[in-house]
Each structure stands twice: as C-alpha cells, then as structure tokens.
Amino acid sequence: MSGQSTYRLTFKGRASHSAPVIGESLYLWGGIQPGIILAHDSPQKKKLMSTVETFSFSSARWSSHLTRGTPPLGIAGYSCTTFRSSIYYYAGHCAHDFCFYNSLNVLNTLTMSWTQLHPNDESMMKKANCGMLSLELDGTDYLFIVGGVGATPAVKHPQFQYEQTKSLDVMTNEQLLYNLSKGDF
Ligand SMILES: [Zn+2]
User: Fold this and answer.
1) Which one Pfam family would you cite for this protein (predicted)?
2) 60 CA to middle of ligand 1, Å?
C-alpha cells in the first residue's frame, strides 16, 4: 500500500474490538477508545457507538459511517462473525466493574442499520471474549458461540462448566447454537 490517504485515520486508539471483513471492506465498531464514556447505558454512549469505521481494500481509505437503529451496549470484548452482508455481534462488556451482556445484535452492512435479535436476559451467562463463527449444518445456517468469561450466571446449565477464577469472574465452556432462519437459540 502507498499514498498518504492510507494513513489518514478517521479514529483514534482502539482496543478490545474486532474488525471483520465483508467483501472488500473491513468494519470497525466499538472497543475501548480515548474519551470513551464508561456508562452502562446513556444517550452519549449510544451516539458514540453509532459510528462504524470502514476500510476499503480497493481504495485503501478509511471512512466513517453513521449507523441507524440501536447499537449493542457490550462495546468491549464482544464476539462477532459475518454471514452474507451482515455482521453478528454477541455479548461483550461495558469496560466498567464486572458488567457483562448476552444480547445478540446484527449490523446490516448494506443499510448500516442495527437490529437486536435477542435481548439481554438471565437465560444465559453474560460474558465476553467468547469464540464465534457462522456455519451451515444440513442446509440450515447457524451461529456457534463457545466459551467466554463473565459474571456468575443466574442459570448454570448442567452440561457445561462454570469455574470461578482468581479475579472473581467466571470462565465457562458453554456452547450456544443460534438458528438464523428460526431466530432462536
Ligand atoms: Zn455496564
């Protein structure tokens, strides 16, 4: 790559984020960034999280996009994967205290709009740093999510392990399968 435009970034520092690729573009959302508001849920946080930075491999340029809808609140350590023209975001944390989420959200990259597919609730462990991918099994499309670390869950599923760590959070081997056509876990 050459040319100054490659290095003229539209964002400052960024950590605990993911940057998935669809087609010829990379999509950068969320993460910890300078000047971030460590609120649990606030209009300012939602406004800041309503921006997605994209990097075009063909033009070698970054650009900033305002999204529609409501972005997820788990801004750091979330898990994400792509499927067709969508990016699926699961769980994550607030970057304050032991505050974790378990909502599933999708960003449609054609309309740059957010939709929540599953809300934060107590049916599953709230966590961050899970593994996540999309896959097809017998003609059905799924999201597969495995592991993670988070808060002590309200419901411990007997087939999985939940182990408290020295830093007082809980590590798990939970495995979740989300059916993309039916829209449920
Ligand atoms: Zn919080």
Assistant:
1) Kelch_KLHDC2_KLHL20_DRC7
2) 35
Q: What DSSP line would sit under the chain, residue for residue?
A: --SGGGG--SS---BS-B--EETTEEEEB-SB-TT----SS-HHHHHHTTEEEEEETTTTEEEEEE-BS---S--BS-EEEEETTEEEEEEEE-SSTT-EEEEEEEEETTTTEEEEEE---SSS--EES-EEEEEEETTEEEEEEEEEEESPPSS--TTS-EEE-TTS-EEEEEEEEEETTTTB-
Q: Does residue 143 form part of some domain?
A: yes
- Which domain covers residue 48, as residue numbers? 4-179
Classify residue 185: in a domain, yes or no.
no
| pTM exceeds cut of 0.85 | yes
The reply to whether 35 falls in a domain is: yes
What tens digit of pLDDT does each residue of 128-159 get?
Answer: 999 999 999 999 999 999 999 999 999 999 99
